[in-house]
Amino acid sequence: MSETTIQDVVAYFNSIAPFNLQESYDNSGLIVGSPHTIVNGVMVSLDATEEVILEAARKKCNLVISHHPIVFAGLKSLTGAHYVERAIIAAIKNNVALLAIHTNLDNVLENGVNNMIADKLGLQEISPIVPKESEEIKAPVGSGCIGKLQQPMPVMDFLLFLKKSMQASIVKYTDLVNEDISTVAVCGGSGSFLLEAAKRSGADIFITSDYKYHEFFEANGEILIADIGHYESEQFTIPLIHNLLTQKFSTFASHYTELSTNPVKYL
User: Fold this and answer.
1) Which of 25, 66, 134, 244 could crosslink 141 through cysteines, CB 3.0-4.6 Å?
2) Which CATH class is domain 6-105?
């Protein structure tokens, strides 16, 4: 059995969620480490914090695959004064490579972030809210996801179902528009940019996160907005990435992080 390199892992995820599908502001891809390094073990996390990297080192994992890139913009120093700097220093000191699979994984429907949410909510007939084109893969590509419930649910029943299904500590929502929920639009992470498209799609509710106070007014009596929290909306990306790894590679062990990297706490 041949050994697996980091480049093999990168190429595999590129075949599922091409890195050129990432948004212009993003920094998906190999951030720290050599593509030629043999993979001994992988730690999967939503965020590649210093604590996750040290956890990976303890468990003999020399690659951390995270959804969010630890570096978005250029670093001007590595003094350890900032959490990003501390993570990069920890990765280099412990020979742990960092690979991020972010908005490219958001922008594919099959094996993508939004498909995971749709599965949790039991949505059917799913498609992107805003379709895009890609010459690399045949599966649907685009921003967000819209689908239908198997049967309509009373709106408050659905909000409680949403909170339980997504393991959310809190759901922030706007005025109720309809008595029942049938068509559901979702976007993992910060999705306010998709609100008008979700309205045009005929969705009864738009589920996402990171809504600011004044942005909630944009529901405008046309749709129900439900903000479930950023970490909560994307937490199932961890088992998604882990399952994809274990289906493809058998030369190394893949682990979930045991840490919650959610920076938001609730009372």
Assistant:
1) 134
2) alpha beta
**pTM for the full model?**
0.95
* End-to-end alpha carbon distance in the chain: 51
CATH number 3.40.50.970 is the correct assignment for the domain at 108-231:
no
| 106 close to 186: Cβ distance less than 8 angstroms | no
Neighbours of 175 (CB within 10 A): 10
CB neighbours of residue 253 within 10 Å: 16
Q: Which among 88, 137, 92, 91 has a CA at the least distance from the CA of 112? A: 137
Distance CA 6, CA 36 (A): 6
Is residue 214 within 8 Å of 186, Cβ to Cβ? no
DSSP assignment of 111-125: TSHHHHHHHHHT-EE
For residue 102, the surrounding DSSP H or E stretch is none
